[in-house]
Write a structure and sequence with these properties.
51% helix; two-stranded parallel ribbon; 203 residues; mainly alpha; globular
């Protein structure tokens, strides 16, 4: 089924984490699924990300020249990104055995799709017109290795997605308050109501 690439699906706040989050419910083996199973979705994701991540990618258009050929490389880059930053968020350190696969994937992506990088290193330089998705994702992932960026990566307390906490005090708990935050509130409300009902019944 074709994915509708809504703003919620770009709750990662940066391109590399948005791509990592294309595996839904990664932390729940019984319900997890991969939106990139269909290579056509990679192309549709790139089109949507061109709008949602316009500032990060310098206003360029993200393209996927050959979705079927690029799928394995993009998925490998996605998994290396998730593995490193999820582990670093939990442990507080970047482990070399997680870093090496990410650097290898990034090097391959940038070698396959040369791109000019902006002076601040955060994304592709503006004015290039079209940029391959895998190259833009590689630049985004590498930018997250900066300590001030890495320290702001969080794991959503509801769905397990990775996101960059851009709040002033760094206290965000959910990737998207309107979705995951509200779901958690509803669960807490249900549990409280159930507990109250149970106590009254027992009495």
């Amino acid at each position: 089924m074709e994915t509708i690439w809504t703003p919620h699906r770009f709750s990662g706040e940066v391109l590399a984490l948005d791509v990592a989050n294309t595996v839904v419910l990664r932390v729940d083996p019984a319900r997890t699924f991969d939106r990139f199973d269909d290579p056509a979705e990679i192309e549709r994701f790139a089109a949507a990300a061109s709008g949602f991540r316009a500032a990060e990618i310098g206003g360029n258009i993200l393209t996927v020249s050959d979705p079927r050929a690029a799928k394995a490389r993009i998925v490998a880059l996605r998994e290396a990104t998730d593995a490193l930053f999820r582990d670093a968020t939990i442990t507080g350190v970047v482990r070399s055995e997680r870093l090496a696969p990410l650097l290898e994937c990034c090097a391959g992506a940038l070698a396959a799709s040369p791109v000019a990088i902006a002076g601040d290193g955060a994304g592709p330089a503006a004015g290039q017109g079209r940029v391959e998705l895998e190259a833009a994702v590689a630049i985004s992932a590498l930018s997250l290795l900066q300590p001030d960026m890495r320290r702001r990566i969080r794991i959503c307390g509801n769905c397990g997605w990775l996101f960059l906490d851009k709040s002033r005090n760094g206290s965000r708990l959910w990737c998207d308050m309107s979705v995951c935050g509200n779901r958690q509130k509803a669960r807490r409300h249900y549990r409280r109501a159930r507990d109250v009902t149970g106590k009254r019944t027992d009495a």
